[in-house]
Write a structure and sequence with these properties.
This protein is of the alpha/beta class. 35% of the residues lie in helices and 22% in strands.
Length: 451
């Protein structure tokens, strides 16, 4: 008898999961509450509904939930009452893979910040040595879109968000990496404790044949390490580590099984946080057997990801940085800390339910002026009271004002500390607009002047 699966969300991961499920023989039904998805064509043999989550969803053997959908919506609460499993697109993809072949090497990365940088760097290091490597998850493409290209020898590098982890009860990576945990996504998870619980799921099914790589400098991460059953290795930016990797005066030292290996890569990505990302990547790739020379080579060439403290241009002595990927307060704090001072900061967007008061101290120390955009403007202004602030409404207005007042030596940093969904589809669209405005200004005024 053909199994039935319902998929909630006609987005990137939902569509990819639907196509994979149909390809391997499931009876697929996909549902989205958003009526605007009515024009999305998936496949002739995949049934769809929009504008409603009907009871037809409950006729399924299991449900695949897209990451942004909350578990407390009525249809999912009813599904849980009826013991219908609710899983993530990644869990489903791995289920299909495991039916085809025994096992894959999976490296999974999570954390509040640094996931994408670490994931991409690990992928690039491994790919330099071993071509049969893919990158997926919260980074780039859904895993289900790449299942057909995966063999039993493929190394899979996955970025995992807390949303994905909370819906992956059977997920078990060979190497799990926890970079950091700071308050984020509280509106979705309801409490910090539930957010931490979701992150812990990256390790929950591991055993002593697996590896856990954990930030020694984070109190929360070290606490989580006490409950892990796998082999634990730590990384630290500030302390000597006897079972892992640490940073010391420009050198990276791997200290495992009483053997010390020293790396001396050229590091091109700015910020103390990126040292931690690099350490985690070094440890993961060293564990799976990548040669030190290859690790050093790739790190030395690596320029970072788009939208994360991304240098755009220097115009008349003013440097512009796109940090649109900073969608939480800790990430923005890290970005500010990457520079000395003379910062003009653009922040704001869709609020995520966390106080901005913790930014006051570093903004007062390093930031000349704050320009606010988006829905969270009033809340940010209240939390940052008595600091130099201008309400700009949107990004174009903010940059128009900044271009007129910025002087040589200033750093213009677009680091929102908020989600993008009030004015943009995603943080990529937001970052692209920032870069376009800066590049258009350069082309229109500065380039002509120089010629």
């Amino acid at each position: 008898m053909t199994k039935k699966v319902s998929i909630l969300g006609i987005g990137k991961s939902g569509i990819a999961a639907a196509k994979l499920a149909a390809k391997v023989g499931y009876d697929v039904f996909i549902s989205d509450i958003d009526k605007r998805k009515a024009n999305v064509f998936i496949s002739g043999n995949i049934k769809t509904e929009v504008g409603i989550h009907s009871k037809k969803i409950l006729e399924s053997d299991f449900i695949i939930k897209s990451p942004g959908i909350e578990k407390n919506i009525p249809i999912l609460q009813e599904a849980i009452k009826r013991n219908i499993p609710v899983i993530s697109e990644i869990e489903f993809s791995i289920l299909i893979m495991n039916k085809q072949f025994k096992h894959n090497k999976i490296i999974a990365i999570t954390g509040t910040n640094g996931k994408s940088t670490t994931t991409e760097l690990i992928y690039k290091i491994i790919k330099e040595h071993y071509k049969n490597t893919i990158i997926a998850g919260n980074f780039g493409f859904p895993l289900s879109k790449k299942v057909s290209k995966i063999t039993k020898d493929t190394i899979i590098v996955l970025e995992m968000s807390s949303y994905q982890l909370e819906d992956s009860p059977n997920f078990k990576p060979d190497i799990g990496i926890l970079l950091n945990i700071t308050p984020d996504h509280i509106i979705h998870h309801k409490t910090m404790e539930l957010y931490i619980k979701a992150k812990k799921n990256i390790f929950i099914n591991q055993n002593n044949n697996d590896f856990a790589i954990i930030n020694y400098d984070s109190f929360i991460c070290k606490t989580i390490a006490k409950d892990i059953n796998s082999k634990i290795f730590f990384f630290s930016r500030s302390k000597t580590i006897n079972n892992g990797v640490y940073y010391d005066n420009g050198n990276i030292l791997i200290n495992i099984d009483s053997k010390c290996v020293i790396l001396k890569p050229k590091i091109n990505i700015i910020g103390k946080h990126n040292i931690e990302n690099i350490l985690a990547a070094v440890l993961a790739t060293y564990i799976i057997g990548i040669k030190i020379k290859i690790i050093e080579k790739v790190i030395s060439k690596y320029k970072g990801i788009q939208h994360r403290i991304e240098f755009v241009k220097n115009i008349n002595g003013v440097s512009y940085y796109n940090d649109s990927k900073s969608t939480n307060i800790a990430s923005t704090k890290t970005a500010i800390d990457a520079f000395n001072n003379n910062i003009i900061l653009i922040m704001g967007g869709q609020d995520k339910g966390i106080s901005y008061i913790t930014l006051r101290k570093i903004i007062k120390k390093k930031v000349k002026h704050v320009f606010l955009i988006g829905e969270a403007t009033n809340k940010i202004k209240k939390d940052l009271k008595n600091l130099p602030i201008t309400n700009s409404g949107n990004l174009k207005n903010a940059l128009r004002s900044i271009i007129n007042i910025a002087i040589k030596g200033d750093i213009v940093l677009f680091s929102p500390a908020c989600a993008s969904f009030d004015q943009f589809k995603n943080f990529e669209e937001r970052g692209k607009l920032f870069k376009k405005i800066i590049n258009d200004f350069y082309e229109k005024y500065c380039k002509k002047k120089n010629n």
